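Email to the structure team, subject: Cytochrome P450 model.

Hi all, the expression group asked for a predicted structure before they design truncation constructs. Nothing fancy, just the C-alpha cells so they can compare against earlier work. One-line instruction: predict Cytochrome P450, return C-alpha cells.
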Amino acid sequence: MEVPERRKLNRKIVTNAMEVINKYHDPIVDERIEKMEKRKGVNGAEEDLLDLMISLKDEDGEPLLSADEIKAQAAELFFAAVDNPSTIVEWAIAELINQSELLRRVVEELDNAVGKQRLVQESDFCKLPFLKSMAIETLRLHPMPPFNMSHHSTKDAVVAGYLTSKGTTVLRAQPVSAEVTARSDEVEVEVI
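Reply from the structure team: attached below.
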C-alpha cells in the first residue's frame, strides 16, 4: 500500500473512532452542561473534572470554554488515559524481562509487602519503594509519546513566536530522547 493510500486509511480509522467516542461522550457532556446551568447558584461544588471545565468563567462571568471545547478536551483526556498507562506498563515489563535481577527484586519486594494471597492495593504503595523507582525510571527512559494530540486553534494566536490562524491544527512535539539535558517546556501562547 502506498503512503497516500495508507494516510487515507489511517485518517478513516481515526475519524471512525472519533465518531464512536463522540457518539457516547457528547451526550454526557451536553447533559452535564444542562444540569450545571439549571442548578446555578444552588450547589456550585464541582464533582469531577468535567464539572470543573463547565464551571470555569471569565472576568465577565461568561463560560470560559464552549461546549465544543469541553468535548474536545474530554476526548483528548480519554485518549491519553487509555493509551499512555498501558504503553508505560508494556515498557516496564520489557525492561524487567531484559534485566532479570531487577525483575527478581520487584517480585521479592511485592512478595514481602503484599504476599501472594491478594492483589496490590493503593495502601501498599508506600511499602514498594523499589517498584516506584522502577516506574519512574521507565518514564525517564521511555517518555510519553513525543507527539501530543493535536489542538485546534479557535482564535488567531501566537504560539512559541509563530502566528497560528483560527482553524489551524497545532501539533506540539517533545524531544525524543531518554537523555534530555536541557529543554524548555514553556511555550508562550498569545491570543490575538
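DSSP finds five helices and five strands in the chain. Helices lie at 3-38, 49-55, 67-98, 100-113, 129-141. Ping us if the truncation boundaries need rechecking.
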